[in-house]
């Protein structure tokens, strides 16, 4: 919800259909954030990461590990798919965890 708000959309609910409606604006926002900073795919917020996209992805990973669920996985997929050349490499060795 915070990411959507920062992207300039007004998140009205947490339904998957509403999330999909906001995907283009969120995608543009993520690309802007990623292109405005020098981010390495292996960096994480544990090592002092300050890029909000990397922090968001880290939080989603923690939430998935603890709670799981389709909406959380959708948010992770949405974020990673927008900039796969920089973000997907982080998940190459985690395919079993994703399944």
Automatic annotation (TrEMBL):
GO terms for cellular component: proteasome complex. InterPro entries: ARM_ECM29 (IPR055444). This is Proteasome-associated protein ECM29 homolog. The lineage of its organism: Eukaryota, Metazoa, Chordata, Craniata, Vertebrata. Pfam families: ARM_ECM29 (PF23702). Residues 6-99 form the ECM29 ARM-like repeats domain. Keywords: Proteasome. It comes from Dipodomys ordii. The gene is LOC106002231.
